[in-house]
Amino acid sequence: MPADATAPEPTQNATDPNEPILVADNVVRRFGGLTAVDVDHVEVPRGKITALIGPNGAGKTTFFNLLTGFDQPDTGSWTYNGHDLAGVPAYKVARRGMVRTFQLTKVLAKLSVIENMRLAATDQRGERFWSAPWAALWRSQEREVTERAYALLERFKLKEKADDFAGSLSGGQRKLLEVARALMVDPELVMLDEPMAGVNPALKQSLLGHVKSLREDGMTVLFVEHDMDMVRDISDHVIVMAQGRIVSEGTPDDVMSDPKVIDAYLGEHHDTDITEEREAAELAEKIAEAGGKSEHLEG
Ligand SMILES: Nc1ncnc2c1ncn2[C@@H]1O[C@H](COP(=O)(O)OP(=O)(O)OP(=O)(O)O)[C@@H](O)[C@H]1O
């Protein structure tokens, strides 16, 4: 047992600010006859906010799951800070400083907010934390975890809710809690899965501010999102997936004016019902509008 069992695994040495933090090559994931992910090459720039967008079923969540060790690809490799991550289990990926958020589950909803925070630290430290035989060491580690948890709850304006059940929080507050939980391990790369889903307009601005503050604190953010306003507002870089592949990349303005992106949103729905087709058309319109809006602002 090493002296400091709770210390994050050593972060890797390739931290040149100009080097991408994450690089993936030839990552393929099939479900039976369906190829959900087929990414030839993609890079996530360090210290920036990158959005991963695409129509429903494009493979975004599956790709997230693969990168973070929650699923295994059929083929492919990817590196984080220059080190191979293929085959590394999710808790070790988190220990190395790459964490992702999830929707809260029922079990977590029945725990208090502070318990959720504390659990995030222990989850990601792995079982050996709890099997440590030294009670004194435990206690001091627990104290540190609790202090960190309260400090983060304060930052995310959730301190008053510390003893409430997580299930009693609003959708937006749960999203804040998810981000706060992710920060328990002091990550370098934070991956957010649809942070705006279920968030009311009042909390949206606050959440946007928090995501931007992660970048100000030197973290890299990669997020999956359908909310095009958020994508346009805060992304430095946008990666677009459709049918498992990367179809476009660039600044928000670049991708939102890329005909391949509009096609991707419309094309997915040629054979589907009229409601889905209308939704896709509206989304494509929103992308076009958002692109136009930013051109207008810049002009
Ligand atoms: N466990 C699974 N078994 C079978 N098919 C799956 C599984 N997970 C995902 N898929 C399929 O893989 C494709 C990609 O799904 P995925 O959820 O990654 O897309 P997405 O871009 O995240 O979509 P959304 O924006 O709707 O969340 C879809 O066709 C989906 O039905």
Automatic annotation (TrEMBL):
Domain ABC transporter: 22-268
CDD domains: ABC_Mj1267_LivG_branched
Any single GO CC term annotated in Swiss-Prot or TrEMBL for this entry: plasma membrane
InterPro entries: AAA+_ATPase (IPR003593), ABC_AA/LPS_Transport (IPR051120), ABC_transporter-like_ATP-bd (IPR003439), ABC_transporter-like_CS (IPR017871), BCA_ABC_TP_C (IPR032823), P-loop_NTPase (IPR027417)
Protein name: ABC transporter ATP-binding protein
Transmembrane regions listed in the UniProt entry: none
Keyword Nucleotide-binding in record: yes
PANTHER family with a match to the protein in the record: CONSERVED COMPONENT OF ABC TRANSPORTER FOR NATURAL AMINO ACIDS, CONSERVED COMPONENT OF ABC TRANSPORTER FOR NATURAL AMINO ACIDS-RELATED
Cell wall biogenesis/degradation keyword on record: no
Organism encoding this protein: Solicola gregarius
Keywords assigned by UniProt, alphabetized: ATP-binding, Nucleotide-binding, Transport
GO MF, one example: ATP binding
Cross-referenced Pfam families: ABC_tran (PF00005), BCA_ABC_TP_C (PF12399)
Signal peptide region: none
